[in-house]
Amino acid sequence: MTWVVGGNCFNGFVCVADIQATISYPKHEKKPDKYFNCVQKIHKITKNLCVAFSGDIRSGLILINELRIYVASYLKENEYFDIDGQSKVVRSFLKMTYREINPGGESPKLHLLFLWNSQEGDGLAFKPFCMRFRSPEFNMTSVPIPGLIQIGSGSADPRYKAIAGFLSGEDTETPEFNAIFNSDNIPGIWTVSKFKNMLFHEAVNIGLHGVSKTLISFESVIPYADLFSENTHYKLNTVFKKLGVVSSIKKTANHSYHEYIIDPEKTKNIIENLIVNDINSFVNLTETLREGVESIDMSALHQLPTVKVDLIWGKEEIHVSRLLTTWDEMVVFFKKHNINMRACTATG
Predict the structure, then answer these.
(1) pLDDT tens-digit series, residues 17-68
(2) pLDDT band at 142 (very low <50, low <70, confident <90, very high)
(3) pTM greater than 0.85
(4) Do 28 and 124 reside in the same domain of the chain?
(5) 149 closest CA partner among 307, 39, 8, 1
């Protein structure tokens, strides 16, 4: 089992995964599963592309390593990854390599998440993208902006489903959902930071065999905060409050977040009232908004965002000093624990 979540936020992408490996034996051996917190399930492939996996650990780690070599072979200097125009090539590579890893008709389950920031068409601003590929055909499923996708057996657990549903803007009305979240309004837009922290704080309190409480994240933030100066930010915040934007702090079972609500009808009434009763305030508001628009510096959005890694310990044993990133490392690790990989399977 495992739980991997990919999110397209308005200001970039974030991927969160647990680090547990599940060792399973054939049923006739009647041996219990073993669990080790040891494997890295998200990997940086290029300067703008991250790939996560769930399912067969051997296939996932070997394929990701081969993918890193393959993409590096065709990207030129100063180029970055983009699926546009390359989807057939990427799918063909994944299918072919998967078959080479698993000859003889074997088809262990493997899901991949691709997350990257790139420029679209002639646009200069970067935007996030997220796609899922599923073995053996590696058909693609894209994720909207904003949007969320989860892979791994953990995604079937009602508690993890509740967290994912909330971050997707869905009110699932299940006992598990209501036990974690209590809000009349389910947010539809998240920043990368708040999306990640909400996942961390809620998931770390769930115990499920096959999914660790310790989580790792890879994130890439597009710096929308740099569009305006600090002074302009302050002025615009003041204007938005006068136009009826309401801010409040909402608490979940183990975390909190700032909720911002704007009612278009309320804003319309405020503007109409100002025009009739306080034209000077109306002029000042419009002038501040005009100055804000004119001061926008789009250059910050034209630079490729970096990828940041974060590991949050869930107060449990981690069985390695550094997370394992290759299958060879996994084999050495299993030998130390007297596990014969020919007699069992390792899934994540």
Answers:
(1) 999 999 998 887 878 999 999 999 999 999 999 999 999 999 999 999 999 9
(2) very high
(3) yes
(4) yes
(5) 8
pLDDT digits (tens, 9 = 90+) for 59-86: 999 999 999 999 999 888 888 999 887 8
Find tokens 């130390």 and name the residue.
Answer: 336
Q: What tokens does 152 get?
A: 């791994």
Q: Give the domain range for residue 258.
A: 229-295
48, two tokens: 């703008």
| Number of domains present in the structure of the chain | 2
Which residues make beta-bridge pairs with 216? 17, 311
Radius of gyration of the chain (CA): 23
How far apart are the C-alpha atoms of 98 and 137, rounded to whole Å?
Answer: 9
Same domain, 38 and 91: yes
**Is residue 259 a contact partner of residue 187, using CB atoms and an 8 Å limit?**
yes
The two structure tokens encoding residue 195: 């999306």
Residue whose pair of structure tokens reads 């009110």 in the numeric block: 171
